[in-house]
Design a protein that fits this description.
Elements: H1 3-8, E1 14-18, E2 25-30, H2 34-53, H3 56-72, H4 74-85, H5 89-114, E3 117-119, E4 128-136, E5 139-143, H6 151-162, E6 166-170, H7 176-189, E7 197-199, H8 204-211, E8 217-221, H9 224-237, E9 241-244, E10 249-253, H10 259-271, E11 281-287, H11 288-303, H12 323-336, E12 340-343, E13 357-360, H13 367-370, E14 377-383, H14 386-394, E15 398-399, E16 401-405, H15 409-417, E17 423-426, E18 443-444, E19 447-448, H16 453-458, E20 461-469, H17 484-500
Parallel strand pairs: 5-6, 5-8, 6-7, 8-9, 10-11, 10-16, 11-14, 13-14, 16-17
Antiparallel strand pairs: 1-2, 3-4, 4-20, 9-19, 12-13, 15-18
Helix pairs in contact: 3-5, 3-7, 4-5, 4-7, 5-6, 10-11
Bound molecules: nicotinamide-adenine-dinucleotide (NAD).
Organism: Streptomyces fructofermentans
Keywords: Oxidoreductase
Family: Belongs to the aldehyde dehydrogenase family.
């Protein structure tokens, strides 16, 4: 919970957050249980009543105040992100900047997207004025991951608040300090609605307590395995659920692509944040004619990356020490099955800092091709043509993001349309992440539902449909006093019209 509440109730149980690079302890945080979560829920729910009653314009003004507060606290927020995740400070700053863009968009567009609008009433109800309005759900429970501890959960938090809800946020147990800081800055920027956005801290049990606390929707970001468990909990109370899970994103490179630009973007998309990006580049399918030239360019760039603990590093340690074991299993499994290591290999995998690994000719059934690796590795496989590239890219249990590199922009967009992915960028990687108006989310093991954009606002609302009768209908179809003759005439007229159109 927020600092004020933590002061009010001393706790006995805490957990320690460690620096991912050194393993040194960073801070202690309370393990919030059902009682603390219930208090956070109460605070958020009572604040949400007044928040929902505000005009969209007032909510926009408050959220823009919070955005300004976050912008002026950018150093503090980025410092917290960098300390808890181990990512370089510049990456943490970029994460906050992207979040500011999204928060501004959600604040400015919620009124337009969600406000009451008229719809055509149709022939049978021509005497009605029909409107629909998107109303807030109440309090949204947000459960977040550690890899982008500001940008990712704020895709739910900012949009849920803009839609008129309260929020209780359970950040990852790796990044609780950043979660607490976000709600503290909200209270400081919008004191008259303090408590609308509360943070609770702790491990899985805190997340479970949040799901059981009577929230009106759960917005979850994390692995598909955890999503299944949380969804099963939601099923008990029919609590709506949104799942943003992992990815195994593919990039398709055509024969006429700018190979230097493709290699540059692929290396960044695969290695930035030590590869711990849900929509990072994990698989590349290059057509045979350019495969070798692309491999050379990717290998040259990846081998030149500087990785380590000093400030000039391009990415940091694995945030989650256990993830290094997954990366090892994938790389060693691929090599044992005959893959070629173009850069790095088993020797890259010692300690929390993993050096870049570029593999080619990896068996399509190897875990490196079928499971999320979430490390600074990339596979570049050769395909006969774009049809095979599309088939292989789509042959995955995941369907989150994808990228296409193609000399002809229109052909690239046509190729994008053939990919099974929730978001595709042509001639860039992760181009969609910086566009707040674009919805983001996946299908299959990547989850379902959307954050960001108009869909991301509507995700935290329930539509209410209203008809207002303007005048009595010529034939009243909802009255027992209407004669059988009048009713039959109305049916005959409708039948005649529908047969013609
Ligand atoms: P995770 O599934 O281990 O944990 C996610 C969150 O769920 C954490 O806060 C955790 O404490 C909580 N949790 C765990 N068990 C729970 C339970 N039984 N009930 C309630 N809450 C529970 O995932 P992670 O390791 O934190 O994050 C990495 C994963 O997130 C990767 O798969 C990555 O691809 C994915 N991710 C997806 C997106 C996206 O937008 N699609 C964005 C970022 C990360």
């Amino acid at each position: 919970m927020t600092d004020t509440d933590q002061d009010a109730s001393p706790r006995t149980t805490t957990f320690t957050v460690h620096d991912p690079g050194t393993g040194e302890p960073l801070a202690e945080h309370p393990v919030d249980g059902p009682a603390e979560v219930a208090r956070a829920m109460d605070r958020a729910r009572s604040a949400a009543t007044g928040w929902a009653a505000l005009s969209a314009k007032r909510r926009r003004d408050h959220l823009l105040s919070w955005k300004r507060k976050l912008a002026s606290s950018l150093d503090e927020v980025a410092e917290s992100v960098a300390a808890e995740t181990g990512k370089p400070r510049a990456d943490a700053e970029l994460e906050v900047v992207l979040t500011l863009e999204h928060l501004a968009w959600a604040a400015r567009n919620a009124g337009r997207v969600l406000g009451r609008r008229g719809v055509r009433a149709g022939l049978l109800a021509a005497n009605q004025r029909a409107t629909v309005v998107h109303r807030p759900l109440g309090v949204v429970g947000v459960i977040g991951p550690w890899n982008y501890p500001v940008y990712t959960p704020m895709g739910s938090i900012g949009y849920a608040l803009a839609a008129g809800n309260g929020v209780v946020f359970k950040p990852s147990e790796r990044t609780p300090g950043t979660g607490v800081l976000l709600s503290r800055l909200f209270d400081a920027a919008v004191p008259e609605h303090a408590g609308l956005f509360c943070t609770v801290t702790g491990p899985a049990s805190t997340g479970e307590a949040l799901v059981r606390s009577g929230v009106d929707k759960v917005a979850f970001t994390g692995s598909p395995g955890t999503a299944r468990k949380v969804m099963a909990l939601c099923a008990g109370s029919l609590t709506p659920f949104l799942a943003e899970c992992g990815g195994k994103d593919a990039t398709v490179v055509t024969a006429d692509a700018d190979l230097d630009a493709a290699a540059d973007a692929i290396v960044w998309g695969a290695m930035s944040n030590a590869g711990q990006t849900c929509a990072g580049v994990e698989r590349v399918y290059a057509v045979r004619e350019v495969h070798s030239a692309l491999c050379d360019r990717i290998a040259e760039r990846a081998a030149a990356l500087h990785v380590g603990a000093d400030p000039s590093t391009v990415y940091g340690p694995m945030t989650l020490p256990e993830q290094a074991g997954v990366v090892r299993r994938h790389v060693e499994g691929a090599l044992a099955a005959g893959a070629r290591a173009l850069v790095g290999g088993s020797a890259s995998l010692s300690g929390p800092y993993i050096a870049p690994v570029v593999l080619a000719d990896v068996d399509e059934d190897a875990p490196a091709m079928t499971e999320e690796t979430f490390g600074p590795t990339v596979v570049v496989n050769s395909v006969a043509d774009v049809d095979e590239a599309v088939r292989r890219a789509n042959d995955s249990p995941y369907a989150l993001g994808a990228a296409v590199f193609c000399g002809d922009r229109r052909a690239g967009a046509a190729l994008a349309a053939r990919l099974r992915a929730g978001a595709v960028s042509v001639n860039s990687v992760l181009g969609f992440a910086a566009v707040p108006a674009l919805p983001f989310g996946g299908s299959g093991d990547s989850g379902f539902g959307r954050i960001h954009g108009a869909e991301g606002l509507r995700a935290f609302t329930a539509p209410q449909s209203v008809t207002v009768q303007r005048f009595a209908p010529p034939v009243n179809l909802t009255s027992f006093t209407t004669t059988a003759t009048a009713r039959a005439r109305a049916v005959a007229l409708a039948r005649w019209l529908h047969q013609r159109r």
